[in-house]
Amino acid sequence: MNTSRLISRIIPQYPLSLSGVHGPVHWARVWENGQHLASLNGADAEVVALFALFHDCCRTTEDEDYEHGQDAADFAQSLRGAELLINDHSFELLYEACARHTDGETEADITIQTCWDADRLDLGRVGIVPDPSRLCTEAARDADLIAWATQRAQEGFCPAILEEWLAD
Questions:
Q1: Phi, psi (rounded to 5 degrees) for 77
Q2: Is the CATH code 3.40.50.1820 the one for domain 3-12+24-167?
């Protein structure tokens, strides 16, 4: 996966402040949350990583924006074959995870569930501690993991992966 090429397409079209609550620092924490969860539950780590990059990249407001998930899925589809080179099955998982990530669902393929949990574990950035009953996977419902992710989100922790993404 060529993340720097994807980021070079995603960042310029992102209409909100890069330092906002749905911007790249959030994406990087979702990436780290997701990679950790995938290592525990066997989810497709590449799809989870791509979800982190795409899921909020088409938001037009920091507030309610009901179409942003579908817009992100469609944007990812527009990059297929160029910057986004993944097989059809993986792309279907990514598309569904992005399109439905704000619907509050908990039932889906383990990779999709991991995407949704990775995002929900970062709710601390807006003052919300994730409710275990709204998380999809057993790994994400772990009290220590919720506390770890919430603290990082509340403190505005910026994962090192963001530097890598923006380096090129």
A1: -60, -35
A2: no
